[in-house]
Amino acid sequence: MKATLIEVAPRDGFQPIGPFIPTDDKVAFVEAAHAAGLRRIEIGSFVNPKAVPQLRDTAEVLRRTAHLPGLDAQILVPNPRGVALALEAGARHLVYVISASDAHNRSNVRRDTADSTREYGEVMAGLPAGIRVRLNLATTFDCPFDGRMDQALVLDRLARMLEHRADVEVGLCDTTGRADPDHVAALSAECLRRFGASGGEGGTRFVFHGHDTYGLGLANVAAAWHAGITGFDAAFGGLGGCPFAPGATGNTATEDVVWMLHRMGVETGVDLDALVRLAARAAALPGASPGGRVRAAMTGACAA
C-alpha cells in the first residue's frame, strides 16, 4: 500500500504569516522538503499581492527550485489572471480553486460558484497542451458562513465543473477543519463511485485536503484513506490557515500524517526524521502558528 503526500506549507502554510519570509528561506524550505522525499510541493500562488503579500515572490521561488530532480511544483491560481501569470512564470501544474459554497466563493474571488465554474471552463478550453490541472473544491464539507454543506449540492456542483475537463485531480478541501470522519468517508466514497478512482486511469483522481482546527485532521485523513483516497495534502509543522475562512487554523501536519501512515503499514517515500527537523524549523518562523503532535513527541519540544 502506498500513499502520496502533497506538501502545501510553502503556499497554504506560509500565506497567513505576517512577517515576510525571505525568498532564500522559502527556496531552502522547498529544497529541504524535497530532500526529505516529498516530490509534490505546492510552492506558491498567483493571487493579488495586496490580498496575500507573503506569496508575492512565487515566480522567483518557482524559478529557483526548477533544478530539483523529480519536483512536481504546483501553483495555486484563483482566476484567469492568475493562470496567465503562472504560465508566464513557467508553471506546468496549476491548482485552480473554486468553492462549493457561494458565500465563500464570493469572499474568496468576489463572484458566485456558477460564475467561477463558467470562467474555469473558459480557462480549461484555452490551456496550452501539457499543462496539468488540479481542481481544488474549497468548502467541500463546511463553509465558514453557511455551515455544513449539503452533499447533493456539492456533488452537483462538482459534476458541472468536471464537464469542462474530466482528466483532473480534485482536492476535496475541508477548508474550515470542521469536517468529521463520517462525513469525509461518505463524500469521498461517493465521489470515487460517481466520478472515478483515486490513482486510477480513465477517471477523475481525488485527494483530501484537511485542517486540524478541531483536532480531527488525522482522523479525517484515515477516513479518506479507508474510503479509497490515496493522496493527501499536508503542511510541515502544521502551518496554515485560510485568510478567507474566519477561524480556520493550520493544515494537518505532514509529519503527523506520515507517522500515522507508516504505523498503518502504508508507504509514503518520506524520511520522517528529516521531515521532523524541517517541521521544527518551520515552527520557529516569526509569526507562525504551528500545530501537530509528532514534532513535539520526537524532539521533546513544546507543541505550540
Automatic annotation (TrEMBL):
GO MF annotations in UniProt: hydroxymethylglutaryl-CoA lyase activity; metal ion binding
Residues in Pyruvate carboxyltransferase domain copies: 3-276
Signal peptide location: none
InterPro entries, per the entry: Aldolase_TIM, HMGL, PYR_CT
GO biological process: ketone body biosynthetic process; L-leucine catabolic process
Pfam families: HMGL-like (PF00682)
Keywords per UniProt: Lyase, Metal-binding
Keyword hit for Cell membrane: no
UniProt superkingdom: Bacteria
Similarity section: Belongs to the HMG-CoA lyase family.
Name this polypeptide is given: Hydroxymethylglutaryl-CoA lyase
The organism of origin for this protein: Roseomonas acroporae
Lineage start: Bacteria, Pseudomonadati, Pseudomonadota, Alphaproteobacteria, Acetobacterales
